[in-house]
Prior knowledge:
The protein is α+β, with helices and mostly antiparallel strands. The chain has 2 domains: 6-149 and 238-279, 4-Layer Sandwich (Double-stranded beta-helix); 151-236, no CATH class. The protein is 21% helix and 29% strand. The protein contains 6 helices and 18 strands. The protein has helices at residues 35-48, 61-68, 79-87, 150-155, 159-162, 219-236, and strands at residues 6-7, 13-16, 23-26, 32-33, 50-53, 73-74, 95-97, 104-108, 115-118, 128-138, 145-149, 169-172, 189-192, 213-214, 239-242, 249-253, 257-261, 270-279. The protein is globular, with a radius of gyration of 19 Å. 34% of the residues are buried. Bound molecules: fe (ii) ion.
Amino acid sequence: MNSMVKIRADAVEVRPLSAPFGAEIHGLQWGVPSRALVQTLTRALRRHLLLIFRGQVSPTHDQLDDFFRPFGKLVSETFDGRFHYGTFTDKDADQVHRKGQFNYVVNTDEGQTELVWHSDHFQRPQAKIMSILEAIEFEPGSVPTQFRDMYTAYEMLPLEKRGPLEYKQTVNLDPRTMDTKKYPRLADSMHPVFRAHPHSGRRCLYVNEFTHRIAGMDLDASKQVIDELLAHARENAPVITHHWQVGDICVWDNVGLQHRRDAMPPGQRRKLRQFEGVAE
Ligand SMILES: [Fe+2]
């Protein structure tokens, strides 16, 4: 399909999952989405948090860019994104595909260790509001991806626990260079403990397994608070487990949803294509 053809909203079907959140999206074709389609999918994303595009053909670089550009800003077209992707490469990726300088990365997860709960780009200053991941290869029974809803985790936090943390900020470091003795610096990014989605204003608990500390607290006090918040999330954040089918494209609210996966047993293969995504 010509990528300049406007894709209308009425061709798309939103099928909510029988799960705490998530919906499948069927009938999607690539092209510049109409205003109505952007609204339909934004509404679905706000309500269901995770959208699983199924049954569409695998998009090209240009189709991805054209389709997702109207939802915010392409990460690759922001100052932060250009700086990041122009400065660093992902050593774990077996192939880096670039359109111009960058567009997406294909990760082969074989033999990788557990990936703990996190949101993408938490270690960068600019929020990535949509993460986009496509299953290129996926052995049946291979390790699934889990998602959890940190909006609900925030909303379940008792008011007396929120008060002291209301205006606190987390300090985050890039997980690849967490060792501050070897790589001394104060922070790679800071975010409010209760971060608001920059478009909707909805707040979530924005603390994850990599959060380094809370600014203005001693390290011990900070660790205790972070451990309590993570325990609260384990108890209260609704979780779903997504078993990938080849061709699935998961698009999620990367502010309010965190994700993880177990370690990949040797010999098991799954290959995912990570599009850089949409920034605020
Ligand atoms: Fe991730």
